[in-house]
């Protein structure tokens, strides 16, 4: 195989060992892979995947391949690729990979085009960049495409906007909508891995710090919970009154970002929106404030404004840029404002990605079977898939649950009985 672009194939052996280690924590995906090997439900299907190139993603790619799919993988973020994993997929699984950690935007989009050269029947996206390029620049490929899946909140938002505009050319299953995805991946995965990334980048003690969490969706909930567990004083900023109320009831201080900016020591955005930390916030931040992002794109922090306000900047640690403002204060930006849990750490633990990627694998199988029946819109993961993944996960953990008796089923489906 010659059609790939990775950093160094000599890294492959180390990548293979780490992929195998992750597999030990992914029992649900392993069960799906064993079934796929027997049934081959994806035989002859070409899949172009734009995902974070990690050990967990490698196990998903191998599962799709076991089901008969011809898979190509490219990165969904320039800083999230694990180069040894990319090399291992090429060397040992013969899966074409186009991804190099630290690639610039030009190379990033060149790699997306290379993945689309595969002429996919199905797309698999994390952030909707692949689908966006396909619709804007590679429309000649659209007749081949029967459907796709989307991994994350940001991508689902973009795709629903496309569908509302009548621009979406094929059906998409929003994997992020699955309860076994956002309840666990977003909350526990993002919570733990974001803290991991911030600490790896800075080596600071969180205990006693004012830790500002921008956004109280499932990712924000998880990060707030983990930051409090590390001893931080957690402050939440929100625009949604219901989520803000929930944060108050969960015991956090809630205030506008303009107020939080004055007292925060560490900031992290997880909203999916633009300029959440902006010029007015930089103007009032403490000397030494640390800012980071765990949303999909590096737009949540207004980096151009920070650049304009600064007299100089320098890299003081890997993934830590010191901006010296014109008034002498210093602000520290982590991971170029990109996903800090993947830029400076390894992303979500394999055991939580087990459920997310089980949703991906089963949603692809569902799309192959039902694409002809689906309209050009964004669908949630079918409830039966969600429940089956939860059942398989519980079984793998050795956890048993009760089963309704016939009497209980009858009672729940009747209206005659009361007090």
TrEMBL record:
<dbReference type="GO" id="GO:0033353">
    <property type="term" value="P:S-adenosylmethionine cycle"/>
</dbReference>
<dbReference type="Pfam" id="PF00670">
    <property type="entry name" value="AdoHcyase_NAD"/>
</dbReference>
<dbReference type="InterPro" id="IPR020082">
    <property type="entry name" value="S-Ado-L-homoCys_hydrolase_CS"/>
</dbReference>
<feature type="binding site">
    <location>
        <position position="126"/>
    </location>
    <ligand>
        <name>substrate</name>
    </ligand>
</feature>
<feature type="binding site">
    <location>
        <position position="181"/>
    </location>
    <ligand>
        <name>substrate</name>
    </ligand>
</feature>
<protein>
    <recommendedName>
        <fullName>Adenosylhomocysteinase</fullName>
        <ecNumber>3.13.2.1</ecNumber>
    </recommendedName>
</protein>
<feature type="binding site">
    <location>
        <position position="341"/>
    </location>
    <ligand>
        <name>NAD(+)</name>
    </ligand>
</feature>
<dbReference type="Pfam" id="PF05221">
    <property type="entry name" value="AdoHcyase"/>
</dbReference>
<comment type="similarity">
    <text>Belongs to the adenosylhomocysteinase family.</text>
</comment>
<dbReference type="InterPro" id="IPR036291">
    <property type="entry name" value="NAD(P)-bd_dom_sf"/>
</dbReference>
<feature type="binding site">
    <location>
        <begin position="294"/>
        <end position="296"/>
    </location>
    <ligand>
        <name>NAD(+)</name>
    </ligand>
</feature>
<dbReference type="GO" id="GO:0004013">
    <property type="term" value="F:adenosylhomocysteinase activity"/>
</dbReference>
<comment type="function">
    <text>May play a key role in the regulation of the intracellular concentration of adenosylhomocysteine.</text>
</comment>
<keyword id="KW-0963">Cytoplasm</keyword>
<feature type="binding site">
    <location>
        <position position="348"/>
    </location>
    <ligand>
        <name>NAD(+)</name>
    </ligand>
</feature>
<dbReference type="InterPro" id="IPR042172">
    <property type="entry name" value="Adenosylhomocyst_ase-like_sf"/>
</dbReference>
<keyword id="KW-0554">One-carbon metabolism</keyword>
<feature type="domain" description="S-adenosyl-L-homocysteine hydrolase NAD binding">
    <location>
        <begin position="186"/>
        <end position="347"/>
    </location>
</feature>
<feature type="binding site">
    <location>
        <position position="185"/>
    </location>
    <ligand>
        <name>substrate</name>
    </ligand>
</feature>
<feature type="binding site">
    <location>
        <position position="186"/>
    </location>
    <ligand>
        <name>NAD(+)</name>
    </ligand>
</feature>
<feature type="binding site">
    <location>
        <begin position="152"/>
        <end position="154"/>
    </location>
    <ligand>
        <name>NAD(+)</name>
    </ligand>
</feature>
<feature type="binding site">
    <location>
        <begin position="217"/>
        <end position="222"/>
    </location>
    <ligand>
        <name>NAD(+)</name>
    </ligand>
</feature>
<feature type="binding site">
    <location>
        <begin position="215"/>
        <end position="220"/>
    </location>
    <ligand>
        <name>NAD(+)</name>
    </ligand>
</feature>
<feature type="binding site">
    <location>
        <position position="151"/>
    </location>
    <ligand>
        <name>substrate</name>
    </ligand>
</feature>
<dbReference type="InterPro" id="IPR000043">
    <property type="entry name" value="Adenosylhomocysteinase-like"/>
</dbReference>
<dbReference type="GO" id="GO:0005829">
    <property type="term" value="C:cytosol"/>
</dbReference>
<feature type="binding site">
    <location>
        <position position="54"/>
    </location>
    <ligand>
        <name>substrate</name>
    </ligand>
</feature>
<dbReference type="GO" id="GO:0006730">
    <property type="term" value="P:one-carbon metabolic process"/>
</dbReference>
<feature type="binding site">
    <location>
        <position position="238"/>
    </location>
    <ligand>
        <name>NAD(+)</name>
    </ligand>
</feature>
<keyword id="KW-0520">NAD</keyword>
<comment type="pathway">
    <text>Amino-acid biosynthesis; L-homocysteine biosynthesis; L-homocysteine from S-adenosyl-L-homocysteine: step 1/1.</text>
</comment>
<dbReference type="InterPro" id="IPR015878">
    <property type="entry name" value="Ado_hCys_hydrolase_NAD-bd"/>
</dbReference>
<dbReference type="GO" id="GO:0071269">
    <property type="term" value="P:L-homocysteine biosynthetic process"/>
</dbReference>
<keyword id="KW-0378">Hydrolase</keyword>
């Amino acid at each position: 195989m010659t059609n790939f672009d990775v950093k160094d194939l000599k890294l492959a052996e180390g990548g293979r060992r780490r992929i195998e280690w992750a597999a030990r924590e992914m029992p649900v995906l392993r069960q799906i892979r064993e079934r796929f090997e027997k049934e081959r439900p994806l035989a002859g299907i070409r899949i172009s995947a734009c995902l974070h190139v990690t050990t967990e993603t490698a196990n998903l790619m191998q599962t799709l391949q076991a089901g008969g799919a011809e898979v190509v993988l490219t990165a969904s973020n320039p800083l999230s690729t694990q180069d040894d994993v990319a090399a291992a997929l090429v060397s040992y699984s013969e899966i074409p990979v186009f991804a190099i950690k630290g690639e610039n935007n030009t190379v990033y989009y060149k790699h997306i085009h290379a993945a689309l050269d595969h002429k996919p029947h199905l797309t698999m996206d994390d952030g909707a960049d692949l689908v966006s390029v396909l619709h804007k620049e590679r429309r000649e490929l659209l007749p081949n495409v029967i459907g796709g899946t989307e991994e994350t909140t940001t991508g689902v938002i973009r795709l629903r906007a496309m569908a509302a505009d009548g621009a979406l050319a094929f059906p998409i299953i929003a994997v992020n909508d699955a309860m076994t995805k956002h309840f666990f991946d977003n909350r526990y995965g993002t919570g733990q891995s974001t803290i991991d990334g911030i600490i790896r980048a800075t080596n600071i003690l969180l205990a006693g710090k004012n830790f500002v969490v921008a956004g109280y969706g499932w990712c924000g909930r998880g990060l707030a919970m983990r930051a409090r567990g590390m001893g931080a004083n957690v402050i939440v900023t929100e625009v949604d009154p219901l989520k803000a109320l929930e944060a108050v009831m969960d015991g956090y201080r809630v205030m506008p970002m303009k107020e939080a900016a004055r007292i925060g020591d560490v900031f992290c955005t997880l909203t999916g929106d633009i300029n959440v930390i902006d010029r007015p916030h930089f103007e009032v931040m403490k000397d030494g404030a640390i800012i980071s992002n765990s949303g999909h794109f590096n737009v949540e922090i207004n980096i151009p404004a920070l650049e304009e306000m600064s007299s100089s900047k320098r890299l003081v640690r890997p993934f830590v840029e010191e901006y010296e403002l014109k008034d002498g204060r210093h602000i520290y930006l982590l991971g170029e404002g990109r996903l800090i849990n993947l830029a400076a750490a390894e992303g979500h633990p394999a055991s939580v990605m087990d459920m997310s990627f089980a949703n991906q694998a089963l949603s692809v199988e569902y799309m192959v079977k039902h694409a002809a029946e689906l309209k050009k819109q964004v669908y949630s993961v079918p409830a039966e898939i969600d429940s089956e993944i939860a059942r398989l996960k519980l079984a793998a953990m050795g956890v048993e649950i009760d089963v309704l008796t016939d009497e209980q089923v009858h009672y729940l489906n009747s209206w005659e009985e009361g007090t």
